[in-house]
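Project channel, design review

CF: Before we commit to the Candidatus Dechloromonas phosphorivorans constructs, I'd like one complete example in the thread so the newer folks can see what an input/output pair looks like. Taking Osmotically-inducible protein Y.
RD: sounds good, go ahead.
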Amino acid sequence: MKNRIGSLVLNSTLAGLMTVMIIGCNKPTQPSGTVPPSTSVGTEIDDTVITAAIKSALLANPEVRSFDLQVETRKGEVQLSGFVDSQVQIDRATAVAKNVTGVKNVLNNMTLKGSPASVGNKVDDGIVTTRVKSALLSEESIKSHDIAVVTRKGEVQLSGFVDNQLQIDRALVLTRGVEGVVTVNNEMSIKK
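CF: and here is what came back for Osmotically-inducible protein Y:
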């Protein structure tokens, strides 16, 4: 089992590194007049390694083991978001993330689940998540790949690191307009 987890961590890390290298090489130029917060390819690779290590550690931890958690990292600052069953899971997930090498700070944006979701709720939530992601993708002013979307019983949680408040505001407006969205929780942060 340890070899399998170690192999999973290594493969996840390598896949993340390759993704960042490809993305870094294919970054579009910024429109004139806008200056994005700077990060180097090295920083992006470090952040990807941190994210992969945290995801692996969370999956390996029997107290947390949740697929409903999102992990975003920017310059060593980690954002945990999504839906969990208990405060114990929140506390444990935060502790696990803080113990990963390279983590400077952990933002807890996790939400406690209410009553259990039915199979119908899960299917509906998957459809809502897809609709929200599509709406965000269609908007040129939003870097939708920087925004994670999780839905539970029509409650949509948006998280991640974006360039400015305008992107947050536009993402919230678009999400609220999607059919099936009951409420929207904003857990997005502006890049530093």
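RD: helpful, thanks. The two ends are 39 Å apart (CA to CA).
CF: Strands lie at 69-74, 77-84, 105-112, 147-152, 155-162, 183-190.
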